[in-house]
Amino acid sequence: MTLIFAHRGSAGTHPENTMSAFNEAVRVGADGIETDVQLSKDGEVVIIHDEKLDRTTNASGYVKDRTLRELKTLNASFGTKGKWGREKIPTLVELLIWLSHNQLLCNIELKNTLFLYPGLEAKVIQLVRAYKMEDRIILSSFNHYSLVTCHQLAPELETAPLYRDGLYMPWVYAKAIGGSAIHPNIRAAPDVIIQACLSMGMPVRPYTINKAAEMRRLFDLGCSAFITDFPEEAVRIREGHHR
Predict the structure, then answer these.
(1) pLDDT, tens digit, for every residue of 162-199?
(2) Which of 57, 88, 104, 185 is disulfide-compatible with 53, CB 3.0–4.6 A?
(3) Are 140 and 108 in contact (CB under 8 A)?
(4) CATH (domain of 87)
(5) Which tens digit of pLDDT belongs to each residue from 49-59?
(6) pLDDT grade, residue 232 (50/70/90)?
(7) Residue 58, phi-psi category: left (phi > 0), alpha (psi -120 to 50), beta (remainder)
């Protein structure tokens, strides 16, 4: 069965990367969530997508220039025009505690391409191990050097390279850097590549799948999973598809 990962929670309907978006993913029956981590000024692992605060909060400047205490005073639902009331930027600790109360898988994207965030990999891995979530976490990044570091630090954790452009034989490349799945932009994952990866035993989880026709195509292909802003619609289509 093709699994459904809720992108930044249910980002198409709720304030992204907030607890309300993650709770919505549970409510609609998603199999997992996808989220993003960065470091605060004082080295805490926080959940937010952009390096800048401007788009999703009522502040400006960089995440890395604010302490956790400062970040916690911000409204993380600001980008949704106040429809959802006030939401706080979660920490990875808060998310892992939340995950302990459900069965969802969790794809953590390390946001370390613009800023390298020294020590981010070790901190994330330490927390995942502390909360005994090794079998439910997938680490991904566009920074493939970072994924090699993750694999060296924690070979028991699944890592998956994110990429936007066509890769030749991506199942070979992923394996070469210790990866056990690929997370391509859907434009870089034509049917033939998805089928070849699956035949080589390499899971494929493309992003960001928001069109119903594309969801149906991936269900038809038996794609391992996909990442979507609209998990409720994806679950509804999958239920109809498997009747």
Answers:
(1) 999 999 999 999 999 999 999 999 999 999 999 999 99
(2) 57
(3) yes
(4) 3.20.20.190
(5) 999 999 999 99
(6) very high
(7) alpha
CB atoms within 10 A of CB 27: 11
Nearest to 78 by CA among 36, 110, 48: 48
Q: Are strands 45-47 and 32-39 parallel, antiparallel or unpaired?
A: antiparallel
Give Rg (Cα) of the chain: 17
Question: What is the rounded end-to-end Cα distance, in angstroms, of the chain?
Answer: 13
Closest CA relative to residue 46, chosen from 76, 16, 91: 91
The answer, yes or no, to whether residue 18 has pLDDT greater than 60, is yes
Instruction: Indicate the residue type of 159.
Output: T
**How many independent structural domains does the chain possess?**
1
Sequence letter at residue 92: L
Give helix then strand counts, H and E, for the chain.
9, 8
Q: Which residues pair with 185 in a beta bridge?
A: 207
pLDDT of residue 21: 98
Closest by CA position to 74, among listed 59, 62, 93: 59
Token reading at 197 = 């990866």
Q: Give the 3-state DSSP-derived string for 180-218, with helices as H, strands as E and coil as C.
A: CCEEEEHHHCCHHHHHHHHHCCCCECCECCCCHHHHHHH
pLDDT band at 81 (very low <50, low <70, confident <90, very high): low
Active-site residue list: 7, 49
Task: Write down the H helix ranges in 29-162.
Answer: 68-72, 92-99, 120-130, 144-153
**What domain range is 237 assigned to?**
3-242
